[in-house]
Amino acid sequence: MHVFEKEIKKLKKQFPKLVENLAEKGMIWISWPKGSSKVPTDLNENIVREIGLELGIVDVKVCAVSEIWSGLKFYRRKK
């Protein structure tokens, strides 16, 4: 699953639903516009990570998806 988002409010609304539907060994990529992209956003890596951690999932990888988008990969915490 890969979600592209520009707004905290929208991400906070849809992220819980994504986690709820996440398979036990599934993953979620969340992408946001890079600061250098000039695309208006109120998201950054730390905010996306914090939202995920609050929902009980953990980030395991960060990457440059494109010249415009960065991404964090999340998994469920191992029990």
From TrEMBL:
It comes from the Bacteria. This is PF11253 family protein.
